[in-house]
Amino acid sequence: MMKFILLLFVSLIFASCSKQNDTQSVTIYVSEDQVFSEPVLKAFEEKTGIRVNAVYDSEESKSTGVMNRLIAEKNNPQADVYWANEPIRAEVLRKKDILVPYESPNAKGIPEEFKQKEHYWTGFSARVRLFIVNKNAEMVPASVFDYAKPEFKGKGVIANPLFGTTTSHMAALFTLLGDANAKQFLEQMKANNVAIATSNGESADLVASGKYDFALVDSDDAVSRLKQHAPVSIIYPDQKEGETGLFVIPNTVMLITHAKHPEAAKKLIDFLLSPETEEILAFADCAQIPLHKGVKIPASLKPISELKVMKIDYAREADEMIKIQPYLKAWLDR
């Protein structure tokens, strides 16, 4: 009898410790730049007392390192939460059964187009694709398709479409326009002598220096040049009636299947989806646009509610991005 009571007592202590551990720490893998994501995670620790073990993507493996690690760890997950800097990789993980649905109460108020409909991932704080334009430019583009117009011949630059958000944007255009129309547009761009830069940052610098009149870049690239007082302005493309709207790239957060700390993980997801986090990221140098209405933003940004947004199925875009790679490579090599 005494032996049974002793075993029961030990079991209760073990269960209590396990429960305590479940709620006192959480492990997150992060693709968003550490310089921007780390202050947010520190704010969560200070607010909740829950310790965050964060694993960040390196520059060398940008946006793919921790995703591949999550895939490799599928049968023995080490992460509880994944914070991706765009939705495509969230879709890759969903299709590989690495995510479990979680509907955060703080997802309420975020537009439906930025949430996976079965709650496998939720978007927050977004970059948008916009034009950075030199103030000495004689003509100002208003649409992505101005890259192909004769009056803008030789005046535009764009980052290599095989990498980063330019690839995502191209995949979005293929999804929206269909293969034939998207390829026709790219061929017209080629004939119009559009220059290719190594990155969005280099594109922004080439415009700031006056070598080119305009470039399609991420909003943070343009805002940073404005903060440096470069002679540039921002144009939100395709905002008129009948136009496509601009391409939006939200951060995404998701719960990992068989997470070891599910309760702490849900609290962290709730925090990342809160207006508080969106305000932090809006005023950081990344200048990300909140998806909740009413969150304070810098004067250099427009609220998402005032922007015409491209309607995109991110699941289809994920498939399209893989499919168009051979064409984009051939397009670049010509």
Write the layout of secondary structure elements.
Layout: H1 2-24, E1 25-30, H2 34-48, E2 51-56, H3 65-72, E3 81-84, H4 88-95, E4 99-100, E5 122-134, E6 156-159, H5 164-177, H6 179-191, E7 195-197, H7 200-208, E8 214-218, H8 219-227, E9 232-235, E10 248-256, H9 262-272, H10 275-283, H11 314-323, H12 325-333
Parallel strand pairs: 1-2, 1-3, 6-7, 6-8
Antiparallel strand pairs: 3-10, 4-10, 5-8, 5-9, 5-10
Helix pairs in contact: 4-11, 5-6, 5-11
Total beta strand runs: 10
Alpha-carbon distance between the two ends: 83 Å
**Biggest sheet overview:** 10 strands, mixed
- What global shape is seen? globular
Instruction: Give the SSE order as H and E letters.
Output: HEHEHEHEEEHHEHEHEEHHHH
Low-confidence stretches at least 5 residues in length (pLDDT < 50)?
none
Quaternary state reads: single chain
| Helical amount | 40-55%
Mean pLDDT across all residues, rounded?
92
Question: How many helical stretches?
Answer: 12
Q: From the alpha carbons, calculate the radius of gyration and give it in angstroms.
A: 22 Å
